[in-house]
Amino acid sequence: MNETLVLAGVLGGAIGALLGLTGAGGGVLAMPALMLGLGLGLTEAVPVSLAAVALAATLGAVVGLRKGIVRYRAAMLMAALGMVSAPVGLWLGHEIPQTVLTVVFCLLMLYIAARMLRKRPAPAPGEACLVEERNCMLDPLTGRFKWNTRCSFTLGLIGCTAGLFTGMLGVGGGFLIVPAFRQFSDLSMQAASATSLAVIALVSASTATGSLLHGGGFDSTGLTFIVATATGLMVARAFSARIPEHWLQRGLGVVILAVAVVWLGKQFV
After folding, report:
1. How many other CB atoms sit within 10 Å of the CB of residue 42?
2. Would you call 55 exposed, middle or buried from its count of C-beta atoms within 10 A (0-12, 13-18, 19+)?
3. How many CA atoms, within 13 angstroms, populate the side-chain half-sphere of residue 125?
4. What is this structure's pTM?
5. What is the pLDDT of residues 163-194, one digit of tens each?
6. Residue 254 — φ and ψ, nearest 5°?
7. I want to staple 78 with a disulfide (CB 3.0 to 4.6 A). Which of 159, 212, 219, 239 is the partner?
8. Distance between CA 245 and CA 241 in Å, rounded?
């Protein structure tokens, strides 16, 4: 039992650190860690994964808000639409065979990883004029998004998609949100990470509550995992600003690629 708790602490801490450094990827890894690493079933793993990611993301979002790098209007719009689509994802998760969901999920991750590994890091906000116009651009004077129909639609679509996968697979959605921010906006990696954590916190907390109301729960292993995830995130956030953005972007791409390959491989072994 003690060994199980130690393993839960190590895995939770590692996933929290990944969330803290990149604002993504932790939810993707939480489910494999709980199911493959700790031997939990799908029904047991989903509420633990969502609660762990929600708590850790909340702490990270608070830190980002204090630093003024969270684009809170974008986060609120994305989270609101994500909360609407998450119950649809929960329903689909019960209707579609798990193997089919996992394969589609892995293929999407492979695509995202390829884009992140191939894409050049976004420039600093002051250099935005040197790149092509994107769907959501920051105002150089205020550091906030220039809101228009295209930007609102793009952010809403990202939020809906992230919420759908949160409901279907118990993931946080950051693996979609951060790459999407990098693709469709000129947010820095730090701002994209912090804003992603705010969205994840709201959507995951809402979905976790729904899961708990439908009979989910936590044992000592689950609680250890949740606390360790939050701790790992707070430690990593203290160091994230010192790591070059292109390292974080490439690192996130490698992690997503590795998880996709391993998880996809297990479906056919």
Report:
1. 13
2. buried
3. 18
4. 0.75
5. 888 777 766 677 788 888 888 888 888 888 88
6. -65, -40
7. 159
8. 8
